[in-house]
Design brief:
With 380 residues, the protein is an alpha+beta fold. The protein is 34% helix and 19% strand. Residues 1-29 have low confidence and may be disordered.
């Protein structure tokens, strides 16, 4: 079977189910027993068509990990707890942390306008960078359209044009200019709408303030101090994460569409909005350290955890500065972010006291199973 193409969604489900769930059988009082609902959730995700799932949780009793399904649909190779994967928009929390550190150092204010740091960049078609603040970029209240909704980008990166354009390099300015083809979604500060353009601009601001790329600042300020050795900002390197599983996408909203291997892709199309690579252990270490105050002073952590409503119809979901607060069905509130990018759907969450955390990845970008896993882990 060709690496780039798996013939049908049925084949996908059958191969993944055949791989089974590779977790320790439950023993009374054991970690596997305590995380039994989570084990059931990852098995259910594979039965529902996800290629494979890897999950790790940490609580007062220690660390537990599990896998289900296939990491490679060509040969049925299992997923591994050591898998590295593209984390998509989880990148946003890292970027927001750097900007908040810069604020703590007195090098910028979150109430600075985008125009102050990036003069002339956000301009035209109803956009005015002098009316948008850095805070509004970080909490998605800027009104700036997301470049990922632009028709050209969708066709070349997310749909049939993927294989022709998968190795293209996109500059941050190119991504912003795609967004500015479209009028603002609303006046700055008057509503909420998720926009990847916000974080491309945030990354550009980090570079303007520091003289270094946002990737260099993340490496210096977060990755090295926390020893996050599995985490990287790959820039334009299209190689799949190693060690890791293959990544799969339908490149379509049609649930019956052909499944493709999309493991190799130039991550510059996501940039500061979502290009990073990590693993489940590193993600938990990052979020636990962040929420415990290990990366930000109290004032900046309070700013980061000050939230706005994302959707009035779903009041349990709120957004801070690069950080989401999610109230689960049992009433437990968790903090973190999710990330969806080619062939990869991830979620990293922790309780506010940082005593219970979870990171989960599905190596197919059409599956919503990661939320079900979170419900099972924190509410099961």
């Amino acid at each position: 079977m060709p690496a780039r193409q798996i013939r049908t969604a049925t084949t996908l489900a059958l191969v993944a189910m055949a791989a089974g769930a590779l977790v320790t059988p439950a023993v009374a009082g054991s970690a596997a027993d305590r995380h039994f609902p989570t084990r059931q959730a990852i098995e259910a995700a594979v039965r529902d068509g996800a290629p494979g799932v890897v999950v790790e949780a940490r609580d007062r009793n220690g660390r537990w990990s599990g896998t289900a399904g296939a990491g490679d649909l060509r040969n049925g190779r299992d997923r591994s707890p050591r898998d590295r994967y593209r984390v998509g928009s989880i990148t946003k929390t890292f970027v927001a942390t750097v900007l908040l550190q810069l604020e703590a150092e007195g090098r910028l204010s979150l109430d600075d306008t985008v125009e102050r740091w990036l003069p002339g960049v956000v301009h035209g078609n109803g956009h005015d960078g002098s009316r948008v603040t850095l805070r509004q970029l970080l909490n998605h209240t800027s009104g700036i359209s997301s470049y990922t909704r632009d028709e050209t980008f969708v066709e070349q990166v997310l749909r049939d044009g993927f294989f022709e354009h998968r190795y293209d390099t996109w500059t941050p300015r190119q991504l912003v200019d795609l967004a500015l083809r479209h009028p603002p979604d609303f006046a700055p500060g008057t509503d909420w709408k998720y926009s990847n353009t916000n974080y491309v601009l945030a990354g550009m601001t980090v570079e303007k303030v520091t003289g270094h790329s946002y990737a260099e600042e993340i490496e210096r300020r977060i990755l090295r101090p926390l020893r996050l050795h599995a985490t990287s900002v790959p820039g334009t390197d299209p190689r799949p994460p190693r060690p890791g599983s293959r990544a799969y996408s339908r490149l379509s909203d049609d649930p019956a569409a052909t499944v493709h291997d999309v493991s190799a892709v130039n991550p510059s199309m996501a940039g500061a909005a979502g290009e990073m690579i990590s693993d489940s252990a590193d993600l938990q270490r990052f979020y636990r350290t962040l929420l415990k105050g290990g990366l930000l002073p109290p004032r900046q952590l309070k700013e980061m955890t000050t939230t706005v409503v994302m959707d009035p119809r779903r009041p349990g979901r709120r957004y801070g500065l690069g950080l989401m607060r999610l109230e689960l069905s049992c009433g437990t509130a968790v903090w973190g972010h999710r990330g969806d990018v080619h062939g990869s759907s991830s979620q990293a969450l922790t309780t506010r006291d940082a005593l219970h955390s979870l990171a989960v990845n599905v190596n197919g970008d059409w599956s919503g199973g990661d939320l079900a896993v979170a419900e099972a882990e924190f509410c099961g």
